[in-house]
Amino acid sequence: MLVYRTCLLICTCLSVLTGALRYRSWMATQPETDGGDQPQTEFFTVPYLTVVPALSAIYPWTFVITTFVEQNIFTLAITLATLFYGGKYLERAWGSAELVKFLLVISVVPNFLSFVLYIVWFAITGNVVRSFSTICGGVALQAGFLVALKQLVPEHTVTLFRGIVKVRVKHFPALFLLVNTLSGPIFGTDVTAVLAWLGFLSSWTYLRFYKRSFPDLGSNQAPSLKGDASEIFAIAYFFPDPLHRPVAIISNVVYNILVAIRICTPFSAADISASNAQPRDNASFSTLFGSGYNNASQGQGGRGGSARAEAERRRALALKALDQQLHAAASKNSAGGVGPSVLGETSLDTSFERLEGQK
What is the residue-wise DSSP string for 100-117? Predict the structure, then answer.
């Protein structure tokens, strides 16, 4: 549990140091007398600790550390809480090495892409404010942690205000993106909106296609799975039901392009089945957050019950996908009036019970 504690210390120290340096810069620009003229345009930036598009190209380390720099006490408290609870959970579920890799991905990639985006924005509009915008904060970190929690414990329910508000973990990424997207034009926090979307996309891409995961030791799966090919972790399922189809169409086009240029490797049927059958609850969520975080599947609590329920649900999804593939194969191979019924009526519940009985 060393990584998340180190991140807490780094975030606190860098935020305090950056605030002190910005305050000193602000004091240095104040007129010495009351009758002095106020400077027309001043940018109180710290380019060697935060990413500033016009200045930070010679400070490459800022693409890592700027994620841990907050500019006010409110956002600092949110980021510290994210690191404490989310970092503690993910380090327990993945291990320290995997958490470090994940933190690097959701720090460097969104910050660098934001850097490029604001340079292009300045080149197109000529607005100097864009080139001196300070890109910092843990928004990309928060988005990435929500995506990771959605992958690990999607069916857990967060209960707020004594049961008045109940939200499942799988809905948090969409709510987070909605709030930050609306805050951009309303409050002028365009950097926050950009970092939220880039953090979401970067973390999902890494977890979907690149992160190595180890399946249940009691299964016959491969020792290591690359990415998460399960249907429920597709990007369309991060959004409300009416948006599933348009998001799926767009994502399929992008995915096919990436496969064509060999950036992504297409998933095999075995990869999808293995990911569908993989248990998700690798650590006890309720032990970190208290009794307000409950398992939504049949009231089961604790690590063992939630893991079994999640595994059963994912096995059912895998059997359903296999059933559909068998029917499709039978339809293609049928000839001479032999219809899809050659396989007989396949019941998902019956198949699932038979599978459980063979164990």
Answer: HHHHHHHHHHHHHHHHHH
Sheet holding 156-160, edge to edge: 165-168, 156-160, 293-295
Sign for the CA dihedral angle at 90, 94, 100, 104 comes to negative
Paired tokens of 296: 């939504």
For the stretch 273-282, pLDDT in tens is 777 666 555 4
- Residue 225 phi/psi, 5-degree rounding, is -110, 135
Q: 294: phi > 0 → left, psi -120 to 50 → alpha, else beta; which?
A: beta
Cβ distance 247 to 235 under 8 Å?
Answer: yes
> Is 267 within 8 Å of 227 (Cβ atoms)?
yes
Task: Give the model confidence (pLDDT) of 153-184 as tens digits.
Answer: 888 888 877 778 888 888 999 999 999 999 88
Dump strand ranges (E) for the chain: 156-160, 165-168, 212-213, 225-226, 293-295
By C-alpha distance, which of 178, 204, 171 is closest to 193?
178
Q: State phi, psi for 34 to the nearest 5 degrees.
A: -65, -25
Per the DSSP assignment, residues forming a β-bridge with 135 are 51
112: left (phi over 0), alpha (psi -120 to 50) or beta: alpha
Q: What is the pLDDT of residues 38-60, one digit of tens each?
A: 545 566 788 999 999 999 899 99
Whole-number Å distance between alpha carbons of 153 and 135: 31
Helix 139-152, helix 172-187: angle, nearest 10: 160
Of the candidates 108, 110, 80, the one whose C-alpha atom is nearest the C-alpha of residue 180 is 110
Give me the sign of the Cα torsion angle 83, 277, 210, 326.
Answer: negative
Beta-bridge partners for 212: 226
Model pTM score: 0.75
Report whether 310 contacts 279 (CB < 8 A): yes
Residue 337, pLDDT > 70, answer no
